[in-house]
Amino acid sequence: MEDRIWLIFGFLGHNQFVQLIVHAVLAAILSIIVAKLATKKLQVVPSGCQNVMEAVVSGMLYIGKDVASEEVARKYLVLAGSLAIFIFFGNLMEIIPGFEPPTGNVNLTLTLALIVFIYYNFEGMRKEGIGRYFAHFAGPVKWLSPLIFPVEILSNFSRIISLAFRLFGNIKGDDLFLLVLLMLAPWIFPLAGFALMTFSAILQAFIFMVLTYVYLYGAVSGHEESL
Length: 227
Fold this sequence. Notes:
9 helices
């Protein structure tokens, strides 16, 4: 299973970091191509790629409004939606022979988690002010603040690990799952595995997007969520 990454990009060498960059760039290029195809010739009555992407964007907005608010959903759609599409294409590479999913590498998932972490904290401080923003971490009871504050700060930082390892662990687990299927029955059962992994690719992108919305909403509204 690990050898598959050399089938397509073997000429680049056996450096995993190089392979990660190549596959991450490829996922980004695919995301841009889909976006360009969807907006190349906009029509009042959409069809083809425009129709599909309008349904996807509408779904993202609906989910954003459901887990946060309409204002947050629309304002941060570019970030949450772009991450979801990029992660989906990255995840999908795990079922394509000759490719390695970049989201199965903790270096990429950690980078994505840091982007979300830095951005939602920045937005919270920009909207609430630095003092008021950090005051939310102290809790409503003042005499408990010295105890609550460090706990809440640690909880806030733990989101980096949660976002990064949730995505990495699931994609890496799918790889191992497919490896077992290929070893046991290389011609029949992998078809079911491919279907499950496609569903997982969509699900993990969806979860990352939802958590991004939740964290942003908590930061800009002053209501921190523990997820």
